[in-house]
Amino acid sequence: MRERDTQRARLYLCDPVLVMLAKPLPKVVDVERYTKKVFASKRVQAAFPRSARWLLPRVGDGRRRRSSCGWSGGISIKLCHRNEAIVLHELAHTICQREYGSNVAGHGWQFCSIYLKLALYMMGREAHDALKKEMKVNRVRFTEPRKRKPMDPEARAALIARLAAYRATATAALVQQ
């Protein structure tokens, strides 16, 4: 089952920062050329080895669509969205599905991690840092959540005893009122 996409709205608040630094790609041919450049990059190939083995993503012109989109087979970019930032966003969807499969959240931490790396590799440190700062401001996760260590039985028993003592004192305080 696919994870719930809880970060979508918060991530879309971050995108304009990158769009301001992006160069326009007015034609579909320009988007195709940029996509080839991204996938030809040695840094991208090293960071995302599974994606590098696939064919290049197809690039569609975005007609008959409400918005641009990316999937494992390619991207579709509307005329008004043809710039480096939006293309990288949609390519991040493509790479995310190729690397992690389709059961991860559409804008989850895996996607955001890929998006940040693509911004760094293709647009530079300034764009990467601006996007990362905006992600932190909007509380968008871009790293894997930490795993909790299982609690040993002794610590668990001590915690249960402290909780029982607290409840007893809280109940006594309520009764006295």
Task: Give the tags.
mainly alpha, 3 strands
Brief synopsis:
This protein is mostly helical and 177 residues long.
Structural overview:
This protein is mainly alpha-helical and 177 residues long. The protein has one domain (8-137): 2-Layer Sandwich (Zincin-like), CATH 3.30.2010. It has eight helices and three strands, in the order H-H-H-H-E-E-E-H-H-H-H. It has helices at 8-21, 28-40, 42-47, 49-53, 84-100, 109-123, 125-137, 153-176; strands at residues 58-60, 69-71, 74-76. It has a three-stranded mixed sheet, with helices on one face. Helix 1 runs antiparallel to helix 7. It is elongated, with a radius of gyration of 22 Å. The protein starts with 7 loop residues before the first helix and ends with a helix.
What's the arrangement of secondary structure elements?
Elements lengths: L7 H14 L6 H13 L1 H6 L1 H5 L4 E3 L8 E3 L2 E3 L7 H17 L8 H15 L1 H13 L15 H24 L1
Parallel strand pairs: 1-3
Antiparallel strand pairs: 2-3
Helix pairs in contact: 1-7, 5-6, 6-7
Q: How large is the radius of gyration?
A: 22 Å
Described by its quaternary structure, the protein is single chain
Q: Give the CATH class.
A: Alpha Beta
How many separate structural domains?
A: 1
Q: What structural class do you assign from the helix and strand content?
A: mainly alpha
Going by CATH, the architecture would be 2-Layer Sandwich
Quote the distance from N terminus to C terminus: 50 Å
Number of helices: 8
Q: Write down the CATH topology.
A: Zincin-like
Order of the strands making up the biggest sheet = 1-3-2
Tell me the number of strands. Answer: 3
Sequence stretches where pLDDT stays below 50 over 5 or more residues = none
